[in-house]
Structures are given as C-alpha cells and as structure tokens.
C-alpha cells in the first residue's frame, strides 16, 4: 500500500566494519522501542518475543532505496504496471470474482474495476503479496531510516494485530515496507479499516480468498470520501496556446472554466458533473495531461504517488472499457531524491515555500517550481527537471 520516503540508513552500513557498535546501537533503539510499545499497551510476553526474535534486515533498506515511484519516470512506471497482460488478468478477475465484487458494490457502491485495479497493482491479484517478515521490516526501518516515528507506529500496530489474534507473527509477511495482503494494507490501516465481508470477526487479508481484502479496500476508500458516482478523471487534449499556469493539483476549476481554457477529454465529451477538477501533467507540458477529480485525491491517500494513482485509474479504465488506452509518454528521467533536496534548498534560498527539504516532490515543491518557471518565462508545468535544477544552480 502506502510507500514512504526512502530511508537513508547509516547504522546497517556500519555492520560489516563495526559489528559491536552496530549491535550496541540496535539494542539501545530496541530497548527504547520496547518501552514505548509497552506504554501503548503491547503485553510483556509479546515484547519479549520481539526482543528475542527480531533483527534488522539490510535487504529492506536496499529495497527502500529503489522505490519505482521515485526512480522511474511517470510514463515508465505506468507502462510497467498497466500492461496488456494485467488488463486481461483484471478482466478475468472481475469475471471470476463477480459475486464478491457485486456484494461489495451493493454494500459500498464502488465499481469492480477500481478494486480490481488496486488488487492487480498491489499484488498482481494475490500472486505477489511479499515474503518479508513484517516485524523485521518495520524494525529495520524504525531503527535505521528516516521517519522513525512513522515506522515505530506501524511496528506497534503490527504487534497489536498479533496480540488481537487476527494473525500470528509468522503470518505477518508482506513488502519491505510492511504492507500486507492482497491489497497491501499497512498495519495501522488494517487496524482502522479492515472489514470481514461475511460478518463479525477479524478480516483475513492474507488468505487465498480475497473477499476481506477487497471489502477492506472499499471500506478504506469510502471512509476517506470516495464518491461512487464520480470518476477519478481521464486523459485530456490541450490546445496549442494552453496556459500551463492553470495546471497543478492546487488549481481546481469547474467544467465551464476548463472548457473556456480549451480542455477536451480524450475518451468522452462531457465532464460537467465532475465538480471541481485539477489538471496534472506528470511528465510536464511535453507529456500527456489528465483532468482529475476528488476521487483521485482519495487514491493518493492509498499511495501518495501521482504516478501510482494514475496507474490505478488507467488500469481500471482499461478493465472496464475493454480497450487499451495509450498515451505519448516522454519517458523524462526524474530527479533523484538528492537532486530534489538540492532543488528544494535552492528554491527556499530564493524565497519559495517547498513544504520542507525532504527529497520528496510534493505539491508545495511542484508549485514552487511552477512559480520559478513563471518568473523565468518558461512553460509553467511544475515539473522538477534537470534543466530546472541547472537554472537554479546558475
């Protein structure tokens, strides 16, 4: 499910050369964590189990540094996820599990293609749910990575799942980031949003039957404001003289305003009932554009990457419409996290608010890039690029 900022570990790197220092540092962190988890209500016997059986895993950090959302261009990322094979598998899954999807639709109003798309992207329809021990992954990230408080919170949630009897520790397996099951729920999300479709009891998101995982995903979306009657968005055609300063998720206008700007949908004519929409340009003004609704923002709560949310939306569209929709991606290479940190630093020095210097190109950073482009008379598409970084260096 949700990916997080990649970790820049230093303690695990010292393991080979300074094993005693590493062991001492880990034990110190572990003891502090055990105290915090105890204060959060985790029973002593479970903390003893954690203390005696969980060790950090360097492979977790290696994977965290290679998150595709941060290392691939938006087009490359989407094309790797929205393949003809996955579209076929998604249509087959919608047919094979039609009764399950119908039951969820009756309960929540969410169409099968959205849930099937999330399921397909998160675990390839249950085939790739991850094999990392979740406690080990989260302990590694909490000990050695950035955002320790976030990872410790998830680690406590994972222990609480085990304590509740929902899943034994050896069943808590998932991704390097601790995401679990068919639709890759983080432990805290399992505690807050999991739902057993057939009635009372603990939701089983790990088993062969995907019913609880799909129902839990629908519950997650609805509880965060998903509107079943509203599409996530669609691709658009822009006029040659388009004003790119209108782009960005911070700019939201109604259909009349977008019509006046010459924005046309690729697949349909009318978007008058979509409410306030934003135009996003994941690869800048040379790449494709997408008009997105409030439901797109809900997908971003599932995973904060715009490329991920687009991949879900486009896969769902292809599953539903039974046709492969292609876009002219530019394959523009993204900036590394270190380069984004430098870009943020240089923008802040020039008086722009990037929302922090964290190596993550969030909305505040993209808006600052757009403002810099406007100042320089460039197409203000908000795309952090190597050319923008060079101009800031100069």
Q: Let me know the largest β-sheet.
A: 4 strands, antiparallel
Number of strands: 6
Radius of gyration: 22 Å
Oligomer: single chain
Question: Helical region count?
Answer: 18
Q: Hey, roughly how much beta strand do the residues contain?
A: under 5%
The mean pLDDT is 91
Largest sheet, order of strands side by side? 4-3-6-5
Order of helices and strands: HHHHHHHHEHHEHHEHEEEHHHHH
Q: Using the alpha-carbon principal axes, give the shape.
A: globular
| Fraction in helix | 40-55%
Cα separation of the termini: 39 Å
Class inferred from helices and paired strands: mainly alpha
Uncertain parts: 3-9
Describe the 3D structure.
This protein is mainly alpha-helical and 394 residues long. Helix content is 51%, strand content 5%. The protein is built from 18 helices and 6 strands. It has helices spanning 19-39, 44-53, 58-64, 68-71, 74-81, 84-96, 98-108, 112-123, 134-144, 148-164, 187-193, 211-223, 255-260, 294-302, 306-321, 337-349, 363-376, 386-393; strands at residues 132-133, 173-174, 233-237, 264-265, 278-280, 289-292. The chain has a 4-stranded antiparallel β-sheet. It has a two-stranded antiparallel sheet with strand order 1-2. A hairpin with an 8-residue loop joins strand 5 (278-280) and strand 6 (289-292). The model is unreliable at 3-9 (pLDDT under 50).
Topology:
Blueprint: H1 19-39, H2 44-53, H3 58-64, H4 68-71, H5 74-81, H6 84-96, H7 98-108, H8 112-123, E1 132-133, H9 134-144, H10 148-164, E2 173-174, H11 187-193, H12 211-223, E3 233-237, H13 255-260, E4 264-265, E5 278-280, E6 289-292, H14 294-302, H15 306-321, H16 337-349, H17 363-376, H18 386-393
Antiparallel strand pairs: 1-2, 3-4, 3-6, 5-6
Helix pairs in contact: 1-2, 5-15, 6-8, 6-15, 7-12, 8-15, 9-10, 10-11, 14-15, 16-18
């Amino acid at each position: 499910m949700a990916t997080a900022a990649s970790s820049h570990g230093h303690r695990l790197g010292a393991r080979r050369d300074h094993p005693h220092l590493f062991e001492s540092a880990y034990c110190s962190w572990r003891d502090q964590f055990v105290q915090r988890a105890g204060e959060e209500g985790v029973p002593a016997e479970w903390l003893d189990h954690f203390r005696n059986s969980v060790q950090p895993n360097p492979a977790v950090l290696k994977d965290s540094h290679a998150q595709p959302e941060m290392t691939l261009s938006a087009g490359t990322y989407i094309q790797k996820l929205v393949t003809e094979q996955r579209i076929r598998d998604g249509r087959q899954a919608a047919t094979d599990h039609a009764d399950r999807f119908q039951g969820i639709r009756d309960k929540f109003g969410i169409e099968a293609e959205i849930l099937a798309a999330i399921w397909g992207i998160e675990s390839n329809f249950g085939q790739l749910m991850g094999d990392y021990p979740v406690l080990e992954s989260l302990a590694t990230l909490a000990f050695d990575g950035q955002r320790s408080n976030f990872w410790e919170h998830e680690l406590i949630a994972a222990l609480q799942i085990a304590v509740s009897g929902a899943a034994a520790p050896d069943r808590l397996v998932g991704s390097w980031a601790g995401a679990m099951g068919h639709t890759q729920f983080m432990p805290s999300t399992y505690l807050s949003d999991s739902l057993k479709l057939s009635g009372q009891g603990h939701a089983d998101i790990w088993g062969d039957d995907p019913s609880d995982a799909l129902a839990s995903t629908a519950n997650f979306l609805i509880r965060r404001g998903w509107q079943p009657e509203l599409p996530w968005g669609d691709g658009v055609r822009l006029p040659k003289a388009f004003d790119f300063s209108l782009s960005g998720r911070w700019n939201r206008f109604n259909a009349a305003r977008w019509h006046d700007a010459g924005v046309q949908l690729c697949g349909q004519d009318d978007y008058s009932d979509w409410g306030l929409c934003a135009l996003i340009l994941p690869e800048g003004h040379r790449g494709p554009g997408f008009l997105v609704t409030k439901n797109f923002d809900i997908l971003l709560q599932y995973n904060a990457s715009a490329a991920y949310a687009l991949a879900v939306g486009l896969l769902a569209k292809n599953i539903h419409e039974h046709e492969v929709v292609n876009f002219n991606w530019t394959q523009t290479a993204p900036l590394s996290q270190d380069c984004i940190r430098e870009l943020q630093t240089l923008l802040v020095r020039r008086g722009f608010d990037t929302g922090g210097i964290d190596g993550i190109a969030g909305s505040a950073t993209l808006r600052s890039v757009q403002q810099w482009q406007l100042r320089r008379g460039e197409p203000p598409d908000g795309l952090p690029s190597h050319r923008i970084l060079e101009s800031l260096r100069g």
